[in-house]
Amino acid sequence: MADALVSVVLEQLSSIIIQEVQREVRLVVGVENEVKKLTSNFQAIQAMFADAEERQLKDQLVKHWLDQLKDVSYDMDDVLDEWGTEIAKSQSKVNEHPRKNTRKVCSFMIFSCFRFREVGLRRDIALKIKELNERIDGIAIEKNRFHFKSSEVVIKQHDHRKTVSFIDAAEVKGRETDKGRVRNMLLTESSQGPALRTISLVGMGGIGKTTLAQLVYNDHEVEIHFDKRIWVCVSDPFDETKIAKAILEALKGSASDLIELQTLLENIQPLIRGKKFLLVLDDVWNEDSTKWEQLKYSLMCGLPGSSILVTTRKRNVASRMGSSPTDILELGLLSTDECWSLFSRLAFFEKNSRERGDLEDIGRQIAAKCKGLPLAAKSLGSLLRFKSRIEEWESVLNSHVWESAEEAESKILAPLWLSYYDLPSDMRRCFSYCAVFPKDFTFERDTLVKLWMAQGFLRETHNKEMEVIGRQCFEALAARSFFQDFQKETGDGSIYACKMHDMVHDLAQNLTKNECSSVDIDGPTELKIDSFSINARHSMVVFRNYNSFPATIHSLKKLRSLIVDGDPSSMNAALPNLIANLSCLRTLKLSGCGIEEVPSNIGKLIHLRHVDFSWNENIKELPEEMFELYNMLTLDVSFCNKLERLPDNIGRLAKLRHLSIHDWRDLSFVKMRGVKGLTSLRELDDFHVSGSDKESNIGDLRNLNHLQGSLMISWLGDVKDPDEVKKAELNSKKHLAHLGLNFQSRTDREKIHDDEVLEALEPPPNIYSSRIGYYQGVILLRVFPGWINKLRAVELRDWRKIENLPPLGKLPSLEALHVIGMECVGRVGREFLGLGDDSDISIGEMTSSSSNTIIAFPKLKSLSFWDMEEWEEWEGGEGGNEDKTNISISTIIMPSLRSLEIWDCPKLKALPDYVLQSTTLEQLKIRGSPILGEQYLKEGGKGWPNASRATANLKQSNYSSAI
């Protein structure tokens, strides 16, 4: 990571000089020679990195030298950031008070006063630069004693040619025998066996224990054998309360606010009593059987045949968890052929037969070095997937890292080190930062990208934004097997969340020792927290059963990231001092920490770029000083339901790119003025329109042309003049993909307002989905504005007094439709399909060009109805049609439908024939609809589409509430 930091410093130095020249602002005088000296030293050191990083594996003195270099680089980055910030702020003062003739004297006095106040700061920056230069002098001299080999500095470019294609390594076979053995152990029941059997998979890190457990857990026979299946990641420490809460959440969907172990266990027992269940406890380290006994005892009420499957690195742990010797399976290494199969499938992905022939011999030698470890084969296969030249493969085969690894902490790290060294420097620092998360932590892609941005890891180019570069970096790391356990979007299959393998996490921690760390607070002791390095830069603190915020954190004055997970009761008292001491913070993430008041001294954190106060329900206001933070990129105050407004000076956050204020739980909203000044915004999840010029006006969106992703505009009923909607110039927001429209108003008004506003809207040309809520007009029931015809996904929610659904079957591109809370709809018929007599679109416009056929919902794949309490009739599209020339027209309805969900529609009597007779339907989920449930069970599923898939959903959800 040191080379990445040095690169950042060199970029900063260059940028500072350019800013001073271009803006004609000089805050620090007399340091030109110091800057030149710094640049020269850093450039000389940069040329030695390749050799130094490789030698640090077996030479602790080299590692210590690199650690010193990282420390001074961090400190230099802080000083240069302070310098650059003051340059920009001083220039903004000039812009606020331009020296025109009419105001020349006044402006000069204001600016002179500002410059006079900054004299002390300028002197301070100059002294810091001189001091850091002395430190780097010593480091530059010390490097000579190591006789590093100099190499030409090569800036590696991201290779994104194939990173959009992800391979699920779990599909690669190699554990068929082991899988069959574990499956048979789970499915075989013995009258003499224990009521609750514990089976353990034991093996070293990277050998594939979790993968094998996943294969068994998702096996079809196992799935139908057990009534309930539960998966819990345990890791270290073994927290009975956390495990119990995870079990309850898996069984019930929520553990609400339960925090006591006894209460959790009492809630679990009724859900498993009389049921056969499988509980997987992944990555167990605990050797204290007393911590497990109480939890295990509460699980004894399940049916005989219930099982617990444990994965652990230690056989002793398996015994303590209750596994008999015959129920412990020690995983062996992969065979040579299995290891080669896993390696080659990844390494030769998208390579042609000629390339494979040239590289296969070298590849087999590399695979042999994996020593039968699946993680090693997966890592090296993913690395070589992006290399096609023989010399590149030979370089991996002959790397000195293999020799160094003999003395490293673990031989398994050798292939991971090789994969790490192959990354470009900017990608290395992004990967290394992930050490801040605890093991088994699920992190979201977009949040991680914002954290990278806050640390300055992502540099925007003239044609590519930071967010795009960040997502590409994430995808590249995923494609190289640094991430796993992907959670993917149902639409485009893109990854939105993932984890890191334990051994990959170990690598990240090895790279950032004394720099990045995660700490569990599980009691009053501060032993773990005391082990922090005074030079720690990034920390995540996880609170378990202990709520006092550790005072030690206050002393970590160089901390750049503070991420808190949990709800420490003393956070309110600790926060002012915490902010006062941690002046280097760039990231402050305190989501759900019970904060009631944000102290005004937060305005002194000049480096701050990422602030997350989401889910702090008692915050009522934010201090104005906070909106003087010139460098702020991300502000998240979503789900702070008592926060009524943001300060009027929010417009000063000229660099702000992400603003989240959404709260779907409450009809109140955050008032904003000055949002029109946030011209750098890329994300604004919710914008509430106010009828008063004193608050937010829809026209304030006019200049926010960088908005992307999703935008929800609410309280459109308060728009008095539909021409105001046009002032927002939504059609210029070309990067927006989803537009939400809520028409609900706090006052009664005529329905015509909704129609006028809807007609005035001119959404962006690339919009592909829309949510329309609380609509009360009539226009959508007859004819659609042109922009709606282009939509691929639509959600209609809470159209209160509307009795009929609009003719959505006419939409030619619609692929997904979600209808929610239509409380007055009692019947869905031909008008919904676009076949009604009152249709304003002629039948000819819906007719297939190749035949006299009408296709309703031609591309619809996913359809769902939720919370339709009065819905009784769902009629089919039976009956012929005639066009104006009396030609008979046939009808095809939903020819592409794959998924149908019906939730909480208690009066619905039957499904239409076009659903029951569908040959394309793959998934049918029905819940809270007892009439349909009784009908299905009475008919034994006969006549229902894909009956075997529908059965589980009807039994599990709908019928459980009907009986």
TrEMBL record:
Q: Where is the Disease resistance N-terminal domain?
A: 6-96
UniProt keyword list: ATP-binding, Leucine-rich repeat, Nucleotide-binding, Plant defense, Repeat
Domain (NB-ARC): give its ranges. Answer: 176-350
Q: Which GO terms describe its biological process?
A: defense response to other organism
Q: Look up keyword Nucleotide-binding and say if it applies.
A: yes
Q: Which InterPro entries match?
A: Apaf_helical, LRR_dom_sf, LRR_R13L1-DRL21, NB-ARC, P-loop_NTPase, RX-like_CC, Rx_N, WH-like_DNA-bd_sf
Q: Name one Pfam family in it.
A: LRR_R13L1-DRL21
Report the residue ranges that make up the Disease resistance protein winged helix domain in this protein.
Answer: 436-508
GO MF, one annotated term? ADP binding
Q: Which residues form the R13L1/DRL21-like LRR repeat region domain?
A: 698-822
Q: Which SUPFAM superfamilies does UniProt cross-reference here?
A: L domain-like, P-loop containing nucleoside triphosphate hydrolases
PANTHER family documented for this protein: NB-ARC DOMAIN-CONTAINING PROTEIN, PLANT BROAD-SPECTRUM MILDEW RESISTANCE PROTEIN RPW8
Name of the protein in question:
Disease resistance protein RGA3
What is the organism of origin for this protein?
Answer: Populus trichocarpa (Western balsam poplar)
